[in-house]
Specification:
two-stranded antiparallel ribbon; 50% helix; 524 residues; seven-stranded antiparallel sheet
């Protein structure tokens, strides 16, 4: 089949109903250099999502007995937790992969003669994402489909896991659909015809592209094998759901424009979080070093694979003068510091001497000219940041550990030790070499012989012991009002997407916030 016919078939297959809404920011409007740079960043994300899906498939294999259980036998609470946490993580990775597929699928409208780089890279990202979705999606659908109790459980809205209603039915609709299946076969054929153009565009030698070519081959083999072996059965099982949701069949549905431009790129309100600088400055007046913050930004996909409304946690340390004023004259802190190597005079003197390079960075300014106030683990690693990065978000909650200042000083000392280490994309809480955002907070405040710390239980997510930021707020709510509670309320700035602003909310609203659905970004 000539290339032009293949492209026409691709377009027809990809648009069985209406085309998806246009992305607010068209990646194909970028110049060649910027486009390739964005494509390479998205390829890094695609590899991360593919690895996440592969890990989840391994977890499913290890707990296969749960999925094969007789449907007349009710699931235990532990079994439900295992299945739902795995499905929630799978759902996150699947949607994230679909974000990339949708971002680049208009490559078919870009001439391979006049814009070879955009055409070549657009195909790689689109087909790479599709083969990843189908290989893992069909495998999961084959295991779970047609099992009434399991499907009911997976389709129910579970905000604590970040799952909207009918997520499973819509997931099946995406992977078990003639459009995406046709696109798989068409894209595989077109890949071979496109190889000379990929060479000409210099794409095949770019970082991670050899991995992607191999991944596409392996994923296509898995998907084709399942379609040949189980295709008729899978399509029959999904027929009722596809009929009921036919209006949604063109693409995997997520709220509004969320799927068009997520990841590291903002889709709306570019550069304008719901929380204003004035609101942040007001909250800063009530904060103390050692406070724990939870943060959320709409239109970003944060902490893929972890459930809950709150995706991010941070440790507030304050400015250097604030840190000194809070700790240096405290009797317990001074007594503890005197026992440290060299018997430093003050806590801040110890930090400056023990971490000279880090102290120099901490006493500087951020990219906005603001003083450093926060230690947080972000994709770049455990970093010093300022208010514009860490607090000018869409939702911000602040909690204060009910601990003596010496315990908070020990926590900040630990956080300084972790600063500079890479981000933990595997969410492995048993290694200190890489840290996810909540891991930084959890390990900084971990109880030890010399410190009471905070007892924050880990939870099981897809077979891993970890700590979603949502659990911090859940703990606050569970212990609220008790004499032995570990956290006190400081502030809650609650975003209002519909109004384009944020308001200061009370403890009751903050206590409830962790129950909000992760994907319901249109908050009232």
């Amino acid at each position: 089949m000539p290339a032009a016919s293949l492209l026409l078939a691709w377009l027809v297959a990809t648009h069985p109903a209406a085309p998806p809404p246009a992305a607010p920011k068209d990646v194909y409007a970028l110049d060649d250099e910027a486009f390739v740079a964005q494509a390479q960043r998205d390829l890094v994300l695609l590899e991360r999502y593919a690895q996440g899906l592969r890990r989840l498939q391994e977890d499913v294999k290890q707990s296969r007995g749960v999925y094969q259980q007789k449907q007349s036998m009710p699931y235990t609470p532990d079994q439900k937790q295992r299945v739902l946490s795995t499905w929630a993580a799978f759902f996150d990775y699947f949607v994230s992969t679909e974000v990339i597929r949708q971002r680049y699928w208009d490559f078919v409208k870009v001439s391979s003669l006049t814009q070879p780089k955009k055409h070549a890279w657009g195909f790689l990202l689109t087909h790479g994402a599709l083969t990843t979705e189908l290989a893992h999606g069909l495998t999961y659908a084959d295991l779970t489909g047609g099992k009434k109790q399991l499907e009911v459980m997976l389709d129910e809205p579970t905000p604590e896991h970040g799952l909207p209603a009918r997520a499973f039915a819509r997931f099946k609709e995406k992977v078990i659909h003639v459009a995406t299946t046709t696109q798989l076969y068409t894209g595989d054929m077109y890949k071979e015809q496109l190889r000379p153009l990929l060479v000409k565009a210099g794409a095949l030698d770019a970082p991670r592209v050899p991995w992607l070519m191999q991944e596409m081959k392996l994923n296509s083999e898995v998907a084709r094998g399942l379609l040949q072996k189980r295709g008729a059965t899978l399509f029959a099982k999904a027929a009722a759901d596809i009929t009921q949701d036919s209006a949604q069949r063109a693409f995997f549905p997520v709220q509004r424009a969320v799927a068009e431009w997520m990841g590291d790129t903002r889709v709306r309100r570019v550069g304008e979080p719901l929380i204003t600088r004035e609101q942040v400055l007001s909250v800063l007046g009530r904060m103390e070093p050692g406070d724990i913050m939870v943060a959320r930004q709409n239109w970003y996909l944060s902490n893929i694979g972890l459930p809950g409304f709150w995706p991010h946690a941070e440790l507030f340390v304050g400015t250097p003068p604030q840190l000194a004023a809070y700790f240096d004259e405290d009797p317990e802190v001074k007594a503890w510091v005197a026992t440290l190597p060299g018997a430093p005079a003050t806590f801040t003197a110890h930090l400056a001497r023990a971490f000279p390079a880090k102290w120099a960075e901490y006493t500087g300014q951020d990219a906005h000219g603001d003083p450093i106030r926060i230690i947080e683990s972000i994709s770049e690693g455990v970093s010093f940041t300022g208010l514009e990065h860490g607090m000018r978000v869409d939702y911000l909650g602040v909690m204060r550990p009910r601990l003596p200042r010496v315990d908070k000083a020990r926590a900040i000392l630990r956080a300084f030790t972790f600063q500079g280490r890479p981000y933990d994309f595997d969410f492995d809480f048993f290694s200190d070499q890489t840290l996810v955002c909540t891991e930084l907070v959890w390990k900084s405040y971990a109880p030890a012989k010399e410190t009471r710390g905070l007892s924050i239980p880990l939870v099981s997510v897809a077979g891993r012991r970890t700590l979603p930021a949502n659990e911090l707020v859940r703990l606050f709510d569970a212990e609220y009002g008790k004499p032995d509670r570990q956290l006190d309320f400081v502030a809650f700035l609650d975003g209002r997407e519909g109004h384009g602003d944020a308001k200061e909310a009370d403890e009751a609203a903050f206590r409830y916030s962790y129950r909000r659905a992760k994907w319901d970004i249109a908050q009232e």
